[in-house]
């Protein structure tokens, strides 16, 4: 039987489930969709409106975007922080974009007189990002299909897969967890890398107001390659501390923490309000935190 015919009932049920969740959403329903419900849905990129006023094409099956498809939102905490920090006319950077939720939110917030620069290493995801930018006619977004580190060169990138997520069941089918590596691991592809200081100069950017960095263990390298612009512009930095991915990338969250402090920043978590962040209070092997860094 034709594959498209087989898919139609699943597509109908996927859309029906979305209508139900939007009307009767609860924590139980969210958990059901995260853990099992999304896995029998179609893996198409389906166009949906979002809570932030832009549109996205999102996969209901992919762990990285099921929340966007079914609920119209993503990372409520960081979304809330950005809505307060980013102003019209700002220049802001999204480093590690996935399909572009924060790129699109940033574009809405800075407006046509602002600028958004987005950096994503995995070519298929870059195409999805571009499609979402085009869907909203955001001509002030600059999409860069490159990995970010401390040199302009080439490196290896291990694409997202269930092996990368160590077969954690609820993370199956997650497009957002590929990573950069210096060695040619199984399945890795070669990608171009960029140094942010050089990009800043070549693009003749006047001032970066905010940088969001979530690149699966390459954060230290990216920040080293941005040292000049960070010391000059003193942007707000929203960055992921992930102990396991940092170790895989040849660094550590301790090294990341020390580097940011050396740039003369204060660090905070956001728990309905900003609270001071002390890494020594987070010693677990599975630490994953979004840390907000403000210049002194």
Provide structural commentary:
This protein has 296 residues and is an alpha/beta fold. It has two domains: 4-71, no CATH class; 75-151 and 194-295, Vaccinia Virus protein VP39 (Rossmann fold, 3-Layer(aba) Sandwich), CATH 3.40.50. It is 36% helix and 23% strand. The protein is built from eleven helices and 14 strands. It has an eight-stranded mixed beta sheet, with helices on both faces. A four-stranded mixed beta sheet has the order 6-9-7-8. The longest helix has 22 residues, at 3-24. The model has no long low-confidence stretch (mean pLDDT 92).
CATH homologous group name of the largest domain: Vaccinia Virus protein VP39
What is the second-level CATH architecture of the largest domain?
3-Layer(aba) Sandwich
Tell me the total number of β-strands: 14
Succession of helices and strands? HHEEHHEHEHEEEEEHEHHEHHEEE
What class, by secondary structure content?
A: alpha/beta
How many DSSP helices? 11
Fold-level CATH name of the largest domain? Rossmann fold
Number of domains: 2
Unreliably modeled segments: none
What would you call the quaternary organization?
single chain
Report helical residue fraction.
25-40%
């Amino acid at each position: 039987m034709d594959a498209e015919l087989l898919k139609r009932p699943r597509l109908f049920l996927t859309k029906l489930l979305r209508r139900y969740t939007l009307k009767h959403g609860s924590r139980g329903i969210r958990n059901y969709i995260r853990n099992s419900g999304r896995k029998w849905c179609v893996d198409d990129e389906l166009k949906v409106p979002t809570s932030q006023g832009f549109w996205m094409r999102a996969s209901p099956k992919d762990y990285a975007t099921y929340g966007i498809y079914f609920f119209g939102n993503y990372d409520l905490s960081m979304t809330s922080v950005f809505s307060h920090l980013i102003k019209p006319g700002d220049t802001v950077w999204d480093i590690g974009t996935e399909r572009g939720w924060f790129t699109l939110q940033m574009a809405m917030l800075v407006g046509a007189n602002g600028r958004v620069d987005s950096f994503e290493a995995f070519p298929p995801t870059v195409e999805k990002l571009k499609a979402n930018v085009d869907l909203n006619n955001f001509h002030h977004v600059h999409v860069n299909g490159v990995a970010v580190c401390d040199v302009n060169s080439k490196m290896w990138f291990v694409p997202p897969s269930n092996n990368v997520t160590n077969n954690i069941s609820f993370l199956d089918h997650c497009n957002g967890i590929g990573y950069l590596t210096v060695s040619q691991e199984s399945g890795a592809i070669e990608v171009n890398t960029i140094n942010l200081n050089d990009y800043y100069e070549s693009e003749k950017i006047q001032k970066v107001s905010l940088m969001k960095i979530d690149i699966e263990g390459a954060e230290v390298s990216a920040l080293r390659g941005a040292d000049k612009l960070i010391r000059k512009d003193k942007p707000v930095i929203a960055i992921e501390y992930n102990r396991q991915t940092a170790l895989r990338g040849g660094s550590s969250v301790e090294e990341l923490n020390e580097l940011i402090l050396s740039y003369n920043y204060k660090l905070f978590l956001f728990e309905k309000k900003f609270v001071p962040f002390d890494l020594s209070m987070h010693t677990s092997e599975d630490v994953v935190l979004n840390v907000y860094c403000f210049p002194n």
